[in-house]
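Run: sequence + pyridoxal-5'-phosphate -> complex structure.
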Amino acid sequence: MPAYFDHNATTPLHPAAREAWLRASEKHWHNPSSLYREAGFASQALESARERLGDLLGAEAERIVFTSGATESNNTLFAGLARCLPPDACVAISAIEHPCVREAARAWLGRARVVEIPVDAEGVVQPDVLKRLLLEKQPALVSIMAANNESGVLQPWPELLKMCREHGARFHSDAAQWIGKLDASSLGTCDYLTGSAHKFGGPKGTGFLVLADEAESFPLLLGGPQESSRRAGTENYPGIEAMVTALEVITPRLSEVAQTQTALRDAFAASMKQAFPDLRIISEGAPRLWNTVLMVMPEHSNLKWLTRMSRAGFAISTGSACSSGKEGSSVVVQALGTDWEELKRVVRVSGGWDSTAEDWSALAEAFIEVAKGL
Ligand code: PLP
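>> structure
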């Protein structure tokens, strides 16, 4: 693949994560719940990985439950709330949540108990809007993603978290797109936090949910007493070790990467706007992830762009991976009130930590070449 620009869908396995996975699989393949010495070592290694992840997130290790990824983490949270909350309690979620928050909340709690928090024209939750909603609806929990997977928009989550605390609501953030791209060291202050390894160079099928406190227990998967009876099933220690290693390796590089990649991404956006004067970049005026550009192309359907770009050797997307293949199903763009015709022309590019200036300029050139043939 000459140039991969779909890092918000998934990332390649980081070499350090691969090494860690192999080492863990060879050395500690035993079941951490078994009672002999080698199993004890596997259990110790698992607990050490939990401590290291807690350090990276600023969360007590005891609050971390390892899962198969963000989808499971979010389902665990809402299924648990459905069991614990009083029947008349509601939760509030932002209008641009990933389907595994939106659909999970609606399915587990019932649509009537899920209130939507509107976003402004740039896709950001405004604190005064949240404050009004907290006063009017008094939700038990507010769920607002840290960074959006489609537009890359960042939410002012520390301010929103503080406001929820002041109004007695718990705060959850799906930080699957933030972790590994921006400083995650204070995300553990959220009551609940969701993360996914494959978004930051870890393996697929591994993630975590940080709970509000260590005593809290609302398992989605029932069975054995693994994860302190909070998630049944033999722990995927090699995957967990690889996930934590990926985050440890990437974290010290983040400020340098953000600086370099923001400049490259903005140069790409400028070239695109020059080549296509009617092109619109969604949420351009808001703080965004350094790797993401969500564009409304001036003409032609996004599927046409996607297939032609793929033939030219570039992997891009129509929006979120969950909606790819379905023209114009971007949740974010719909929440921003974009019309149906425009929705069909939405294209997302998302670069990586090591995308080069050549990669970004080749991407812009490929769009220009493809346009000539359309
Ligand atoms: N939440 C967000 C914000 C995402 O971007 C994704 C992946 O697309 C998910 C959740 C789902 O993650 P996973 O593939 O780990 O279930």
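>> summary
Residues 3-11+254-373 form a domain with the Aspartate Aminotransferase, domain 1 fold (CATH 3.90.1150.10). Residues 69-71, 98, 100, 145, 149, 174, 176-177, 196, 207, 320-321 surround pyridoxal-5'-phosphate (CB under 6 Å).
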